[in-house]
Each structure stands twice: as structure tokens, then as C-alpha cells.
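Archive transcription. Copying these from loose printouts into the bound notebook so they stop getting lost. Printout 1 of 2:
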Amino acid sequence: MKRFYPFFTVSTVFIVIFALSSCAARIEGALAADGSAVLSVNMSLENRMASLIRLLSDAGGQTGVPVLDGPAIARSMADAPGIASVSFRNTSSTAIEGQVRISRINDFLSPANGRGFITFEQTTSGGRFEVNINRQTSPAIIELLSSEISDYLNALMAPIASGEVMTRSEYLEIVSTFYNVGISDEIAFSRIRATIDFPGTITSIRGGTFSGRRANFDISLLDLLVLETPMIFEVRW
């Protein structure tokens, strides 16, 4: 298995913690019929992970800065495929809020061959939206967002970056050994909750619940990091 042990600069930590770490995250947004989207994001770090990042920052000589830096995160995401604009601000040293505008959802983190992990179709009679993340495609997705994230997650042995076959229990054991049980426990219980409005009245959903045009998703961070089975979400309207 490929493993990296990079120098943990503060900027690296900021980017990684936003993308995949021990956190509580809430996403609300709307997907338009032309494939554009607007997302509002609220996220905060759990206590043990925040403490770990503070220790890493202090060890690197970076003190007196937010553990989670909203503007720095926005800059790191600005050039990712499919993103029109990103704006984040700090509500505390360990929490951020802001907005992400996506120009075309099909292009979001899509590689050069155009085969991304999101499918969006809109016709006069209805539409379909699907997200499919698996070990085969996820390393390329992570690399498009940030090569630093890819290297960091390989250091954490996360299958979403390495593509390695691993169970959730095996992954938590590795994290608890490399860091501590507190960190692995926070990852195990962290959730990403999303509420998205779609262009029409929803008729069916996979991986969530719905009412009218609104879909709700409650995603386990551990499931996303490990991808023991592919994560597939589908909405039809």
C-alpha cells in the first residue's frame, strides 16, 4: 500500500480537514434545470480533531491562526472543475460557513475524459440526478480537488484516496493506532447532512428521503472514507 508522511503545513491541514475529516457538516442548496447549483455550507470540527490540528499547527510554528480557515479553504477550491465561485468565512476558529456556486453539476470534479461521478439529465418530461462514488474512481476525484488532500489521505490510509480494499473496522483500527481512539471515534460518529431542492417534484430517491422537490441525505463520514460498498445516491423527478 502506498503511504505518504508529508510535512503537515497549516494550509494542507486546512484543506484536508474541510474535505474529509472528523466534523459536523450541514449542506443546503438547490439544483437548477440547467445543471447549475448553489450550496450553502456550515461546518465545524469536533473537539479532538481540532486539538490535533492545533498541535500540528503549533509544531509547524503557526500560532494564532484559526484551526479551520474559511478564506484559505475557498482559495484551494476555486480552481476545481465545475466550480464557478467559492466564499467561506469563519464563525469561530473551528467553524466556517459560506457558499459554493457550481456552473455545471456534470462537470464538478470531472476528469479530462468527461466521465465524472455525477450524472445529471433534464428533459421536458422530468430529470435524473445520480452520484456514484467508489474505490475505482474516488482517487481521481480527490486528486482533482487537491493533490495535497490525496497525499494526506494516503497517509491516513483512507480507501477513498488509495483505492485499497478495507473494511470500516480495519480502517478505524489503523486510525486509532496511528493517532488515538478518540480521533477514530469522532470519525466513526461524524455525519454529513444535506438538503437539496431539485427542479421538479421528486418521484423516487435512493439513499435519502424526500418531500415535494426537497431531498434529504444523512451520510456517514466513515462510509465515505472507506467505501466498503459504493456510495450511490439517485433522485428522479
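Printout 2 of 2:
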Amino acid sequence: MNRGLKIILSSLAWAGIAAYLVWAGGLGERKRAAASVHALEITVRDSTDIGIIRRADVRRWISSAGLDPLGRHIDSIDLRAITDLVVAHDFVRSARTSVGLDGTVHVVLSQRRPVMRVVTDDGYDFYYTDDGYIVPAGRHSAHYVPVVTGRFGLPFANGFSGRLAPDPEEAAKKSNENYLFLYKLINFVEYIEENEFWNAQVVQVNVLPAAGRRTEPEVEIIPRVGDQVVLLGRLDGYERKLAKLLTFYRKAMPKEGWDKWNYIDLEYEGQVVCSRR
């Protein structure tokens, strides 16, 4: 085959490819021009582990905001508005929205995972999540998390929603005793959650306000097994105190029984002080 014929055949092949691409692009445009939305598919990631947001909730949010895409032309769907609406809800960590030529709008979202719930005597009721957010409890339900009760000061107003981590404008909070204690409390609860034994054993953390001999709040824990209250005292050195309690559980409880004591005090160095029933 001479060189001139090769050039002609190559040119014809490229022309055919170009014509096909133009035809395919036009077909796609014609399909898009005729396409309307016939399905709204919602995917809630981590739904098996975090039972907070349901697909029905997301559908209701979208419908109530007047953004229901069903029956509308796909080019008229405001994907950004749907995404912004969904991600504005407290327990939504991230969201994205897309639409396909098949007429399906896809909303995919991930949830924030609660670490603890705080219910104080003076009316605070919120979740703290693993990415540092304060979320008012409201009507939300969540999978099991430790509950913190009692009376203690907090560095934000009741009903606050948002990230707890300080920014430069809030640097003064670092010297706020309420702020520092809350972070100690968060670290303590996260330590419990990460430890298989204590995560299964501790069901409630109760805070005793600073008063009298207590210069800062002290902490009690309510175990799942046994009918007693355990006083840790101040949160400083809680790892050592829990290790002492675990040793007591292993050595003393099998001999004395889990129901012999109603109060266990871990405040004193090298001692476990128990009150009998």
C-alpha cells in the first residue's frame, strides 16, 4: 500500500470517529433535552452503625423546602440548593447531589458520630460528636453513647450548635475553667469509648459541682454490672484510677460479690475505699 493511500484511509478513519462523536454528543443532548426526573435515590452512609438520619428524613427535608425534583426537567434541578439544605442539618457531616441521564437524582450523605450525650440539671441537652461538634439533642435519637449528667458550667449558651474547637477569636476560652473542664470530660469519655472493657461497663458519668472541699468538679461513674456508684474525684489521672478499679474488680469482687458495696471511692492514692450496704 503506497503512502498516499495510507493517508487517505487514515483521514477517512479519523473523519468517521469525529462524525460518531458528533452524533453521540447530539444524541446525549437530545436525551438530556427530553429527560425528566423520575426517581430520588438517597444513600445514608454508616446507617448500620449510626441510626440517626433516615432516608425518609432526607426526603421530608427536601420536600418541605420545595426542592422535590420528581417530575421536573433535569436541567431545572438545583443540585447545589439540595446539597446545602441537607448539609445544614446538624448531624450531617457531608453531602453531595448529582443527577443522571436516566432521570435519577442521587443524594449521598455521611453522618456525624456521637461520642457522648450531656444532660445537665440546668437544662443543657446535647450530643458531642467525633468531629468536635455540639449538636442539640432535640428530637434526635442516636445509638448508644455514654450519658453525662450533673451540674457544671459550660462555655456556650444552652441550644448552641457548632464546632467546639477554638479559633483565634475565641482564644480567651482557653483560660475559661468551664472550657477546660469540658475538654477534660471529653477526653475521659473518649478514653472510655476506646477501651473495650470500660466502654461495656460504664453507662453513665455524673458530675459533682465544685463546692466546699471540691475546688473543681468531680466525677462519678455508674457501672453496668453491680449496684454501686464509683467516685473518681477530679479527672486528673483518671487512667491510673481506672486501672486501680480494674484491679479491685478482678481481685476483690469475685470474693466479696458485686452487690456488697454501694459506693467505691478511688480518690486516695493506693487505696480503694468502699462503703458497705
